[in-house]
TrEMBL record:
Span of domain AB hydrolase-1: 3-219
Molecular function GO terms recorded: hydrolase activity
Protein name, UniProt field: Alpha/beta hydrolase
Coiled-coil stretches noted in the UniProt entry, renumbered to this chain: none
């Protein structure tokens, strides 16, 4: 199965370098998506351009792909699903939940010179980063790409309620499936509250399992792709 991989904030396609070969070994066709403004040198990219990049990958897939989105990009995956509900086989959300219509995409941290740089590890202390050793922390921070302001502050626009028909799998990273179910039931992730088919799988990791648990993540995604 073709598996489209979308990294979260500050990440480019190389974030999946340890996951993609493991997926290939399982017989799948992984395709990391390079997002405008996050790996192509386009520092003035917009949210619409990032959505367009994901849609181009969906549209050129030979079959309905498995769409995998990480962290803040869970909203990006949801936007693509809203735009192509008939083309996405299933949406996997790693460590995040989609924002609602009208909300900013990811206006979380200070902007500098038209972009949102990685804020350091302070905001992520605790369960988010507990499984990152010092070498990984330094590598991730060194490779982090400032997210263009027009991406981070772009406004989410959703229009096709057929998105709620697309099966969703929530990969629970620094939180448990029980917590995720409670949040959704309480209306803290309204888009998933309305989704018709939501499953939960656990992975023993912090917020970045593509770096800390790549083989386990690949096996999990392979099982989802195989319908297991």
């Amino acid at each position: 199965m073709e598996i489209l991989l979308i990294g979260g904030l500050w990440l480019d396609g190389t974030a999946w370098d340890a996951v993609a070969p493991a997926l290939e070994a399982l017989g799948h066709r992984p395709r990391p998506v390079t997002l405008p403004g996050q790996g192509d040198g386009h520092s003035s990219a917009t949210l619409d351009e990032q959505v367009a990049a994901v849609l181009a990958a969906v549209d050129t897939a030979a079959e309905k792909p498995l769409l995998v989105a990480h962290s803040a990009a869970c909203t990006l995956g949801w936007l693509a699903t809203d735009a192509r509900p008939e083309r996405v086989a299933k949406l996997v959300l790693i460590g995040g939940f989609p924002n609602e219509d009208g909300q900013p995409y990811a206006d979380f941290f200070e902007m500098r010179d038209g972009a949102m740089p990685f804020p350091g590890w302070g905001p992520f202390e605790g369960a988010d980063s507990a499984d990152l050793d010092e070498e990984l922390r330094q590598r991730i921070e060194a490779d982090a790409i400032p997210v263009p302001e027009q991406v981070a502050r772009g406004v989410v626009r959703l229009s096709d309620e057929r998105r709620y028909e697309v099966p969703v799998v929530v990969v629970c990273t620094e939180f448990t499936p029980e917590q995720a179910r409670e949040w959704i039931a309480a209306g803290e992730a309204p888009e998933l509250t309305r989704a018709k088919n939501v499953e939960f799988v656990d992975i023993d990791s912090g917020h970045w399992p593509m770096f800390t648990r790549p083989a386990e993540l690949a096996r999990l995604l392979g099982a989802v792709a195989a319908g297991q």
